[in-house]
Amino acid sequence: xxxxxxxxxEALRExxxxxxAVVGVIGLGYVGLPLAVTAAGRGWRVIGFDIDPEKMVxxxxxxxxxxxxxxxxxxxxNAAGRFSWTTDxxxxxxxxxxxxxxxxxxxxxxxxxxxxxxNTARDIARHMRAGTLVVLESTTFPGTTSQxxxxxxxxxxxxxxxxxxxxxxxxxxxxxNARYRTATIPKIVAGDGPEAGxxxxxxxxxxxxxVVPVSSTATAEAVKITExxxxxxxxxxxxxxxxxxDAMGIDVWEVIDGAATKPFGFMPFYPGxxxxxxxxxxxxxxxxxxxxxxxxxxxxxxxxxxINVGMPRHVVNxxxxxxxxxxxxxxxxxxxxxxxISYKKNVPDMRESPSVRLVELLxxxxxxxxxxxxxxxxxxRMREHPGLFGRQSVPLADGLAGCDLVLIATDHDAxxxxxxxxxxxxVVDTRNAMARRGLPMDRVTKA
Length: 447
Fold this sequence. Notes:
Blueprint: H1 8-18, E1 22-26, H2 32-41, E2 45-49, H3 53-60, H4 71-79, E3 83-86, E4 97-100, H5 115-127, E5 133-136, H6 144-153, E6 165-168, E7 187-191, H7 194-204, E8 211-213, H8 217-248, H9 252-259, H10 283-293, H11 299-327, E9 335-339, H12 354-364, E10 368-372, H13 396-401, E11 405-408, H14 417-422, E12 426-429, H15 433-436, E13 444-446
Parallel strand pairs: 1-2, 1-4, 2-3, 4-5, 5-6, 7-8, 9-10, 9-11, 11-12, 12-13
Antiparallel strand pairs: 6-7
Helix pairs in contact: 1-7, 5-6, 8-10, 8-11, 11-12
């Protein structure tokens, strides 16, 4: 029990040390739900907040809609009274630690859209009490926590660093990765001031296996952006190499596999039909936008973005060429079966999936398009692609029977690639899925 004359910092530090602090997690998606269940599993009382009533229905039924969260674990922490959920943001007033896991998308002009962060901060400011730690986990440009979020929180009439505390700890979730889960991924943390830093480090040390403190929230924000810029730039590089080596008649996949045998100085990245997921297609543009404020040109990052954004059109052009050479016809009226509509193998995650852009480009060219994806039975509602909502995955046999060409966009393990090979259909493979499985390549074109 904290002393009656304890400062907000001292009282919260004691509650965190005793694990009596109540944790609120705002945004129960791919980041928030695994974090909430992990914290509850380690003894914290957690309240999850989300504006989506459909998520509440699923959670009430004990159903997990995120692959990284097992339904049995969800039901266990709920039955133990350690995890509950609500759409009532007034209950933020019950929380001692509030973690923000909301989207940070781009606008149509590829500029940062912080509306979710800003609106969430206003909700917190209306309801939080003194002695609260607020942690932003959403990926964003350096300076967001201190320059955007903290001023909004101070609209509560309280002062950051004295009455409440603000920190940043970037999420590092990797959907579909069975080796690393929320608890086992090292956690970067930083506070806006030394007391906030001490609190955020103490809290996450009791949630995950390893905490890595850095000197400032801006540094922590830059760490996450750097991780994703690194991947985006290297993927762009191999995508460009693919175009070059294709023109030379060289298999880029064989080149990368050969180079990867070098035990030092090389890290393999692989080409594809474009970038997907919430982080890699978006985060580099947050940095380029912020760099312009400092009159710095980010030509390297922007060039990588141009290459990656252009890959779906390159793939469609390759499909067009294959159709013309093999069948003597163009895309108008052609029947195309896309294998894999999610952005990444073995997950149902549709965020920024390049497969969706492939569908749109093929439809614009006059093709008839169906898709087969064992992880996505129907295309969910997406802000940027409303016209595709509700399209359903077709059985593989039906799709093969009715198509002129198969386009492998996402290489899920659960797909029967041998059946694709046996069908005799033309195949354009953007993931090297057929060759990796030793299947006949006489009807396959890599793209």
